[in-house]
Specification:
Elements (H helix, E strand, L loop, with lengths): L1 H12 L5 H22 L3 E3 L2 E3 L5 E3 L9 H13 L17 E8 L2 E8 L2 E10 L3 H19 L1
Antiparallel strand pairs: 1-2, 2-3, 4-5, 5-6
Length: 151
């Protein structure tokens, strides 16, 4: 499904820029971002559907990470529960470091920071947006993309 959506997004980028094209691009990007979060959360894809549990199935267009705190907060909790160890490119080589991320949100801002041995290492990924939900969503997408490349 992701491959098909990425191809549609590529096809749209070749068309003349119109309001409809921009709208369609944003819609497809949102679906792709929601699928990225669903995969991070361990949801399994089955013919375009993501199985959250045996009894609860939703279509990728119905994923609501971008619009619901009820959907997004479990992702925040999972990120904060990660033990990164000394993940590559994060800290100088030092085997006693135990890195873990934290998420800080305020009004229209979200920051994912990294702690190592109980001290702040870095304000790792941060974003401003129109709302706290939007800033958190964008920051989470960036973190998951980084995490998937570096784990």
């Amino acid at each position: 499904m992701k491959t098909i959506l990425k191809q549609k997004l590529q096809d749209l980028s070749l068309q003349p820029i119109t309001e409809d094209v921009i709208c369609n691009q944003k819609y497809i990007e949102r679906i792709l971002n929601n699928i990225t979060i669903a995969e991070f959360m361990g949801y399994k894809e089955s013919e375009g559907n993501f199985l959250k549990s045996i009894i609860d199935t939703c279509h990728e267009c119905d994923l609501k990470f971008h619009s619901s705190w009820d959907w997004l907060m479990p992702v925040v909790e999972k990120i904060e529960s990660l033990q990164l160890g000394n993940i590559k490119n994060l800290l100088p080589d030092d085997e006693h470091f135990n890195c873990c991320p934290g998420v800080e949100m305020d009004r229209d801002y979200c920051n994912i920071y990294i702690q190592a041995d109980m001290r702040l290492v870095d304000n790792f990924i941060e974003n401003l947006a129109n709302t706290k939900l939007e800033a958190t969503y964008i920051t989470i997408i960036e973190f998951i993309e980084w995490y998937n490349k570096n784990k």
